[in-house]
Amino acid sequence: MTRPGFAFSTRFKVRYAEIDGQKVVFNSRYLEYADVAVSEFWEWTGIGAALGDAWTHTEFHVRRTEIDYLKPFVWGDTIEAFVRIARVGGSSLTQRFELCHAETGALHTVIDMVIVNVHLPTGKPLPISDDIRAYLDTLPTG
Predict the structure, then answer these.
(1) Any residues with CB less than 8 A from the CB of 54 and at least 6 apart, and which?
(2) Separation CA 98–CA 82 (nearest Å)
(3) Which residues pair with 113 in a beta bridge?
């Protein structure tokens, strides 16, 4: 499936262990879905192979996440997770996730996540390097 503004998506099924007593996906699982999707997104971008140490030594921490639960997923649904970089700031990236039902295309969940490049020993923000910024500018936008 395609979605305007997104060049990348990945699919996975809702497993029994992910549902709650109401037989819908438990709220915290949506952050796990975002983590799975963004891990595959970064692999898809090829940034690690292209930039090597410049990327593997860059550390991002989640700063803020906003989740809009529009419609629950249930056991057995196949989710198609669309991912893009919505904004590149001085030291942060905003990642946009749209979780859709893979068969119907219905949008179920929107997640906006701000991640900040940090210096690990101090935990203080660091500017995103010019080579990473330039590489992100080359990514297809859908």
Answers:
(1) 129, 131, 132
(2) 5
(3) 65, 95
Q: Round to whole Å and give the CA distance between 15 and 51.
A: 35
Contact 140, 6 (CB under 8 A): no
Mapped onto helix, strand or coil, the DSSP state of residue 47 is helix
Q: What is the pLDDT of residues 93-131, one digit of tens each?
A: 999 999 999 999 999 999 999 999 999 888 899 999 999
Rg of the chain over Cα atoms, rounded to whole angstroms, equals: 16
What digits encode the pLDDT tens for the residues 57-66? 889 999 999 9
Query: Identity (one letter) of the amino acid at 18?
Result: E
CA 91 to CA 109: how far, in whole Å?
Answer: 26
Question: For residue 24, what are its two tokens?
Answer: 């819908």
Residue length of the chain: 142
pTM of the complete model: 0.95
Q: Which residues contact 37 (CB under 8 A, 6 or more apart)?
A: 10, 81, 83, 97
CA 132 – CA 66 distance, rounded (Å): 25
